[in-house]
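Human: I wish I could look at a protein chain and see how it folds. This is the protein in question:
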Amino acid sequence: MQKDIIWTLKKLHLCMEQYGRMQMENIDLSPTQAVLLHYLLTHKEQELYAIDLHTTLGISKSYISSTLKELKQKGYLYMKIDPKDDRKKQIILTEKAYKAEQLIKKSIMQQQKFLCQEIPERRIDRLESDLNKMICNLQKEIEQEATV
């Protein structure tokens, strides 16, 4: 029996985007911007740079850069030049970001709750592991293709 995992993942992604847009509409954030801002807020004690996000999250530099630029334009953060290396810019969150923190956290937790309802905890753990493995597989393939 052939599985159509790609289509299922795509439908899930589209549903999550639609739900995320509804949740973030009142603070003018896209779902992607909200998730990245949530990550930054949960790591606010650390000095973070765009390259850190690329390395840690495994997302392309251009995607990180464009999302950070959008968040900066909306007033959620600004970039501070590193005195030791003027090519590096530290991400600094603004008061607007901190004011949005609880709403973003609540929305993400609510979305996760809806996604996972009626799925036993052990299966959720396994699903997360399997999805992470899929991400690793794709990242390896992307890296291999980039070196060819």
Notes: The chain has six helices and three strands. The first strand starts at residue 48 and ends at 49.
